[in-house]
Fold this protein.
Amino acid sequence: MDIILWPFKWIVSAILWAFHELFTVIGMDAASGATWILAIIGLTIVMRTLTIPLFVKQIKSMRGMQELQPEMAKLQAKYKGKTDQLSRQAMAQEQMELYRKTGSNPLASCLPIIVQMPIFFGLFQVLNGVPNAAANNEGILVLGNDKVEQFNDASIFGAPLFSTMLRPGDGNHFATILIAAIMVVLMSATQFYITKQLSAKNMSDAAKQSPMYRQQQIMLYVLPLVFAISGINFPLGVLVYWTVSNFWSLGQQFWVIRNNPTPGSQAERELNERRAEKGLPPVGKTKEEQEQEIEAARERAARGQRQQPMGKKRQKQQNKKKN
């Protein structure tokens, strides 16, 4: 595992070193917890910026998967009860053909997380190794022994940045537990809101009838629980990275839902209402197309109008009035 993570640990240590140097050059204390927290936030911003193209691909793939749900339901009904190998192969081939037509990939939705996990574990190992490296007057890859010593001395409200809820170190135990608990709650709450926001507002009505929607409802409660359980084992510095990353995801998701929602979703209807207030056409349509539709609707309404039939008595009365 160490060999696999070595390149990622090197990247993490290099980015931390660069941001730490930047903040100390502008006058911040090299051993201050604030300096190292800003360096970790800088690492988070760099990594999340680099994964933006993967996020865009994830959004496109997820929308393609949502559009496919009616077709997938038909396909599952077609092969329902057929468990022989040939039927399974045929179903798999038809599924792959549907994915190919829409350019969807079930794994694309996991790409941003897959790419970030090695960096996350690289950061975990770097920060976890700080106490031993400092005790032996050693460096950690790009971080020299002086940087390791400075990080070892860095704390926030008396809680060392390398400490965990289960391993508070020599700092203020209560401060460590309190700060870690606050960040674990923030991580879990933001993850819950991100998943709920995605499933409630940015899925079409058809997609909400699919198995994908039911899976997201399960993940709505499972992921925050996973964060809460695993968070107690992570150093405060790692919790800072994870919390900032979640807030980045929250902002990213909010922008997408507000400005580029899934077709047929509640978010798209809200966007069209805002556009209508500004005199703009619905998303995906030009003003000319909107005017043509309005004109066509008027013509249909005009053709549909017909004179109401009158009884003979009423018709005689109207003829007398004319005469």
User: Anything to note?
Assistant: The longest strand covers residues 155-156. The CA atoms of residues 197 and 253 lie 8 Å apart.
